[in-house]
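Contributing new records

If you add data, match the layout below exactly. Sequence lines come first and carry their own label; structure lines follow with theirs. Keep one chain per record. Anything else will be rejected by the validation script.
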Amino acid sequence: MGVQELETRRMELVHGALAVVEKAKESGRMLTEDERKEADGRMAEIKAVDDQIAKAKSDAEFVAQILALGEGLEQTHPQSDAPGNVLRSNGKGTIGERFVNAPEYKAWLKSVAPSGMIPDGTRGLHSPAVMLGAIPLGRKDLITGASDVSAGAFVQTDYTGIYEPLGRYALALRDLISIRQTTSDIVEFVRQTQQVTEAAPTPEANVKDYTGATGEIEGRKPQGAIYWEKVTATVKTIAVWVAATRRALADASQLRGIIDQELRDDIAEELEDQLLNGDGIGENFVGIVNSPGILLQAFNTDILTTTRQAITTLLTVGRARPTAFLFNPADWETVDLLQDGNNQYYWGGPLQQGPPRLWGVPVVQSFAHNQGTTILADWRKAVLWDRQATQIFVTDSHSDYFIRNIIAILAEMRAAFGLIRPAAFCDVTLA
């Protein structure tokens, strides 16, 4: 199909796509699903036709260049057997004849040799460039590595084998909390709800039968009270899977390892989010920020004042010693950049050495924690019970995968989570 026919076809496709859009526009509505598919199909065809037009034009230019290369060159006469019998192109003679008869060469020769003879021993002379038709004398095709029909045919791709993934957020929470194991689907623990607080100094009794009369001392010791509650946490499953062809796994030796690592990393990220933000609905964990009984610290004046008061709240109300603050990285950046009245950083600025701390308490950053709050806690009071560490399973028995040579690769972990003392956690508002 020629360029003109392709351009006609393109115009028909454009009009067809416009007709679909105009129809919806006149009706004052958005495109329907069918209209959208029709318009997408026409746009795809337009792109394909554009590619064909570009190729056809490129081919035409290439042919024209080749024809220009042969313009005026001598060719062996197809009907002559005599040696040296040549066909003169356009009657202009051979390349040599055209060169010596060219005006540029004649003018140059007259200037360097008025008699028509160049003296013996003359050196350093260079004749001018002479154009023979559209081709300068002596011009050769440039050998270039950019062309597959030139030196580019010898260029071989250097496959390094390097694989660079997109990267994932750094995880922190699992290193803070307590990790234990379980062999059951239900974890049960006992939490104290009231402790003994009735102890008091008691005088010695001075009567056998106490009546309450003046001067009598009963000497009765105060009785204490203590209560507990039984708490259960069910094991939850976090899983993800992908499909790959058997051939791809066999031909790309590193693909299986890449897939396994991706699945494990995805589960680890989801676990961190669940430990912090799980809402307890369905198969979600009850995350720390949604656990009943945790302490709350309201914002007061500024971040530094608020976080210092949170330490006091945790010590006095929660009766717990904090082991770390947990910040979203953006919030910790705000704290890091705080300056005093002399525009000096509180913590030494960019030259600060050592791990980050706030009011002497270590600081940990997690991308799973939402901005606007920080959690101050004795993180040992959060426990993850591992029922099954992350494992990888492979099968071709899913659906019709066996007859299609497709492999399902599944990763899953099972665990239970709970706060054995919710009051050891304080959610601190930062603004």
